Amino acid sequence: MPVKHNLTKAERLHSKTLIDKLFKNGTRKYSYGIIFYNLLTDKTLSSDQKDVSIIVVARKKQFKHAVDRNRIKRLFREAFRNNKHILDNLIPDDKHLMLGMIYVGNGLPEYSFCFKHVENYLTTLATHFKNQKK
RNA sequence: AGAGUGGUUUGUUCUAUCGCUGCGAAGAGAUUCGGAGAGGAAAGUCGGGACAACACAGAGCACCAUACUUCCUAACAGGAAGGGGCAGGGGAGACUCUGUCACAGAUAGCGUCGCAGAAACUAUACCGCCGUGGAAUUUUAUUUCGCGGUAAGGGUGAAAACGUGAGGUAAGAGCUCACGCUAUGAUAUGGCAACAUAUUGUGGGGACAAGCCUUAUGGGUUGAAAUGCCAAAUAAACCGGAGAGUCUGCUUUGCAGGCUAAGGGUUGCUCGUCCGAUUCCGGGGGGUAGGCAGAUAGAGGUGCGAGGUGACUCGCAUCGUAGAUAAAUGAUAGGACACGACAGAAUCCCGCUUAUAGAGCCACAAGGAAA
RNA sequence: GGUCCCUUCGUCUAGCGGUUAGGACGUCAGGUUUUCAUCCUGGAAACAGCAGUUCGAUUCUGCUAGGGACUA
After folding, report:
1. What whole-number distance in Å separates Cα of residue A42 and Cα of residue A18?
2. Interhelix angle A111-133/A66-81, nearest 10 degrees
């Protein structure tokens, strides 16, 4: 069975209040120049979103050119798109998972780098949810 | 021959799979199909507009901008052509070529010109030059102390009352004259004009206006986080300041009306003007932070023809060309070549400035190294 | 997106076009002390960059770079 690799608008975080909540209350993890945030909320708060939604951040102070910021966001979105099947059917039905990624590494990342670290993070999250279900 | 510098034009491409944002079609829907999808600078936000909101009887002041002329443009601190200055080159010369210039006014006024120097602005007397009075030395003469004249010579400085020659004088001086330089007025000729040339009159110490300023011209303020509509939500909380006087009517408290006035508007100030008691102004707090419009066909591009020295304008034909809202162009695999620079739309447009690998074209050529 | 402001020793700051660019803290050297601290003396150390105006620019003007503030 082929896995779907879509990334629609509903899977991207765009509400300002939810973003503020994520970066204020979310659990934080740092690895290899990437800061990950995740937060589970009730689905009623974000009715138009799907089960999982993400946001990618590249700081303007660190990356002066808009070209570089766009590139980083695209690479991380691509990495998430190709790895999000790991979390399929693991989120509770009444909950909604928000993910945030801030890239603070030096220089522009390679795609293989992004792919590897996003995959690692998602698998750790997946094992965490599996344990919770049991 | 090549490396280099400056200007200008251009600014990788093909196939497959997965994926993103609008649009169109089909479908009850999930979804499927078709087609479109960053730049010459999208950047800086330096000018100017379009558009929108608010304001606007009027006058004065302040503030800001511009500054050789004519033209182009919707407009501009932009552009074109011309004029002038400066620098450099060529030429025996007449002259010519190239580059560059924020290029109105210093004879409206104020201010500044450090150090050095005698003196730095109604100029100045340190040395020197000349005249003259006194003293010393035995006289010619020299030295010295005063008074007066002088800007030729000296040295200082970025800058010291125009240069050369003659006259003139005690010595000198545009003090006078000739020639020249320069400022300005008048006339004539050429040019739309800036200006140029000629004749003639008057005059002669600067510099700085990217110091204040003067003159002329122009400028209402704020910018898509503007603005309009819908939905949701709420607070007439609290603090500070001002809430005065007088007249009339009703039935005492009080209420209503008029006048002056506090206050407010006139988007900097003053006058003026308008509003002016169910209070006004300021601070501060609470809620919401979603959607639609604005928003992509426009001072549009391309080609041809005509006009103009040119910027540009006119006519005809033709093209359909991003529209997101945490924000769309990416990833993987495989080829081609020069191995891909600067760099990503956020209301739109015109300019300017800055960045830019490689390739094409044009111009420039100093010094060094190698053969 | 828009409107503005600021860059001076290592840090915080003064600076009327002509200055040896001043001060404080820090730093270095010497002295004082048995030694350290304090104290005393002395030194090094800066105008963000590039052009223009001017006899002369940290100061005035333009461009570039960096930093900051405000704005529903």
Report:
1. 11
2. 40
A38: tokens are: 């995740």
Bases along strand B below 7 A from a protein CB: 18-22, 38, 289-290, 325-332, 343-345
Total count of residues recorded for chain A: 134
Separation CA A51–CA A132 (nearest Å): 17
| Order of strands across the sheet that contains A34-42 | A27-31, A34-42, A95-103, A52-58
Q: What is the pTM of this model?
A: 0.76
Q: Which residues bind near strand B, taking a CB cut-off of 7 Å?
A: A 4-9, 12-17, 19, 55-56, 65-68, 70-71, 73-75, 78, 81, 110-112
DSSP A41: E
Which domains can be identified in chain A, with CATH numbers?
10-126 (3.30.230.10)
A67-95, pLDDT tens digit by residue?
Answer: 888 888 888 888 888 888 887 777 777 77
Strand C contact with A65 (CB < 7 A): no
Q: State whether ipTM is beyond 0.85.
A: no
